[in-house]
């Protein structure tokens, strides 16, 4: 899909496994879809930390020599999109500081909704910030706390609001500890796997497949896994939330389809969204010749649609996967260049056909409009666009890089007006009620479809 929804970040960690940095590299590689602006790993023993962070893809940031320098059997890593802060290297994670108490490194997936207030408060008390990312307030707050590691984590995280799935690597003069922590609402996924005699912890289970870790558990909302020399302690943060709110968009779009997020197969969830869209079209007696998905994220829902409806599934568009973060556009403008460089239609599949096109969302509408124009130029007779989510009417404040409300087409136009704008013959979305049915009544965050923000929105 889309030029405008960008995944937030991904975190991955290894506890007590030889070649931890190399394994962490593989884990981050599997999570590359969650952030492509920069990557970093900090490894550690009870005596020292080693780290490397740089902008670029995981495979560009690390080579064998760089990984060999990251010693120890424990490491945490991060891939980043800039949801908060700009794109400077100093904003890359893991953030890493030293104090008289030892060393601390933090990798964060999510966004803190009160970071700006906390930053102003800390700066007024003399703190000097190195970066512009929200995560840095966690380091400053932690540095001011006293007590055991657990007490310091509780004291620190009782001050922050919003979304955080965190990996915290900590050493003092006696020992090394790693904490995996999910905020009390449980916005972002974070799971634990067993690997050899140790553990892997990551944003998504697809990373476990690559490093050979076996699934252990998804962290519960507000839960902490604390790894230390004597074993693992599981405990709950003191701060509580009125309800859980896992991000439903992880199932719809952000997580990889080969992951299990929040206890469900992402692929199966997406197929179910497609099946629900198909059921509705069957009731409405929609007549079509084939169904296709907008690659890549619309494909599983299109398969679900095909299986439910019996319509043949075809690849109507082929996606180029090898576009870097930037590409050089020709001086002489080629019409719809930015869409064409990503998606190329297959006229043989499309000519003269009435097509059901399945996608996961419409953001500004401009990409859907251009894709529909490409499909029509390639011979499609009718285009029935089906969106495997409700209309996106409001931005995300919990770790996803989204346009402002004003830029979201569904915040301003009716479904009929959107249909007209994107040159579709018909347009259907899932409803919020459909989403409730698909999530089996679970308490989830769907604020970008409903404006029901579980943890409030930033005041500053
Ligand atoms: S607002 Fe939307 S994208 Fe953000 S956490 Fe909630 S469901 Fe996910």
Written description of the protein model:
This protein has about 450 residues and is an alpha+beta fold. The protein folds into two domains: about 230 residues, Aminohydrolase, N-terminal nucleophile (Ntn) domain (Glutamine Phosphoribosylpyrophosphate, subunit 1, domain 1), CATH 3.60.20.10; about 180 residues, 3-Layer(aba) Sandwich (Rossmann fold), CATH 3.40.50.2020. About 30% of the residues lie in helices and about 25% in strands. The protein has 17 helices and 21 strands. A hairpin with a 4-residue loop joins strand 7 and strand 8. Helix 9 crosses helix 10. The chain is elongated and about 70 Å long. The two termini are about 30 Å apart. Iron/sulfur cluster binds next to helix 8 and helix 17.
List the helices and strands and how they pair.
Elements: E1 9-15, H1 20-30, E2 38-44, E3 49-55, H2 58-61, H3 64-68, E4 74-80, E5 95-99, E6 102-109, H4 115-124, H5 136-144, H6 149-157, E7 165-171, E8 176-182, E9 191-195, E10 198-202, H7 206-211, E11 214-218, E12 223-228, E13 231-236, H8 248-254, E14 260-261, E15 264-265, H9 266-283, E16 290-293, H10 299-309, E17 317-319, H11 337-340, E18 343-345, H12 347-350, E19 354-359, H13 366-377, E20 382-387, H14 409-412, H15 415-421, E21 426-429, H16 432-438, H17 447-450
Parallel strand pairs: 16-19, 19-20, 20-21
Antiparallel strand pairs: 1-4, 1-10, 2-3, 2-4, 5-6, 6-7, 7-8, 8-12, 9-10, 9-11, 12-13, 14-15, 17-18
Helix pairs in contact: 9-10
Bound molecules: iron/sulfur cluster.
Iron/sulfur cluster (SF4) binds next to helix 8 and helix 17.
